[in-house]
Amino acid sequence: MLALAQWLSATPLSAAIQNALWLIPLLQTIHILAIAMVISSIFMIDLRVLRIATSQPMPETARRFVPWIWTGLVLLALSGATLIVGEPERSLPNPAFQIKMLLLALAIAVTGAFQASLRREPARSERADQSRRMTSVLAVSALVLWCAIVVAGRWIAYIKAT
């Protein structure tokens, strides 16, 4: 991973990103705001799934917040990829970054499974049976994974690559 990071760091694109003093802070700000979009949207859906907030039916809650999740993910991918190109030696060989990427893959899979379960059967979260419990587990798992991603992301700055 270190060889890839060194090669990437030597590319003209990486140098251009590193030399634009305003770009990395701007990208980090976009990245943080996109994380907030994703986590707050998942949190709002979780409140509905767990029946803490019941002012809207689940399909309406999903219609309202799911687009924010996927928009946030696109912004995260774009800003994150650019940050990696700009600072590859800081991120790619870093164990915290690698854990973050593993958690990200899991979170996207769980979030996708949760949304697929809502699409297949929108009223599932309204019932009081095993399938509703599974929807609740998926929803809470997604939130926990996204919070773990934030923690791993913060640790990138404090763990030195080996």
Kindly describe this structure.
It contains seven helices and no strands. By secondary structure, the protein is mostly helical. Helix 2 crosses helix 4 (58-86) and helix 3 (23-49) packs antiparallel against helix 4.
Q: How is the topology of this model organized?
A:
Blueprint: H1 2-9, H2 12-19, H3 23-49, H4 58-86, H5 88-91, H6 95-120, H7 130-155
Helix pairs in contact: 2-4, 3-4, 3-7, 6-7
What is Rg?
Answer: 18 Å
How many separate domains? 1
Low-confidence stretches: none
Distance between the termini: 10 Å
Sum this structure up briefly.
Helix content is 79%, strand content 0%.
Features:
162 residues; mainly alpha
